[in-house]
Design goal:
The complex is a heterodimer. Chain A contains no helices and twelve strands. By secondary structure, chain A is mainly β. In chain A, strand 10 (87-95) and strand 11 (101-103) form a beta hairpin. The termini of chain A are far apart. By secondary structure, chain B is mainly β. In chain B, 0% of the residues lie in helices and 52% in strands. In chain B, strands 2, 4, 5, 6, 9, 10 and 11 form a seven-stranded mixed sheet that branches. In chain B, strand 9 (90-97) and strand 10 form a beta hairpin. Chain B is globular, with a radius of gyration of 13 Å. Classes of the chains: A mainly beta, B mainly beta. The interface between A and B is medium-sized, with 20 and 23 residues.
Amino acid sequence: AQSVSQHNHHVILSEAASLELGCNYSYGGTVNLFWYVQYPGQHLQLLLKYFSGDPLVKGIKGFEAEFIKSKFSFNLRKPSVQWSDTAEYFCAVTVDNFNKFYFGSGTKLNVKP
Amino acid sequence: GAVVSQHPSWVICKSGTSVKIECRSLDFQATTMFWYRQFPKQSLMLMATSNEGSKATYEQGVEKDKFLINHASLTLSTLTVTSAHPEDSSFYICSASWSQNTEAFFGQGTRLTVV
């Protein structure tokens, strides 16, 4: 079965620190990869997605992620976090071109001002 | 982006009663909607795929007689939790998209508490 692993459950950073959140998936076929963010009390919002092409994907709010196929990874990065980035981040995959999502367990990010 | 709305946002019900949650795509037609649930400190888990005009497809381990899904139109899917028990208390989220390989939009979720 497909699975998505997020290794960091809770991350605390100070403003201006760099961020990297890990995401690994287990599926050998065609995958589409996503990072979603959920601010307190709000909907899931799409940060970025990878379907094909350049494995370095840039998203909204200065986030980027790199798809490394050989490592089955899709880590999320941001060079300098802000207090407003405090939220929960979910990595997700869809397989075989369907919109059926498999989510990681999420990472809560707290950014201290 | 497209808007998906869930109603209600939160509901408290008594054990043994049934609760209906609605998921609407407000500005696009969604042939497929998905229902997820999220337990505290856990990830979103796919429960079922809701296809307009046909029976829903349930993930392994999800009781189809307990979680009734109806997708009667291209803009509305409903999830009914029948004979709710306290262990059904969870956060239920739907998503909708208009085609494969396109972004799925999520509803704001429904917090169900069964007392």
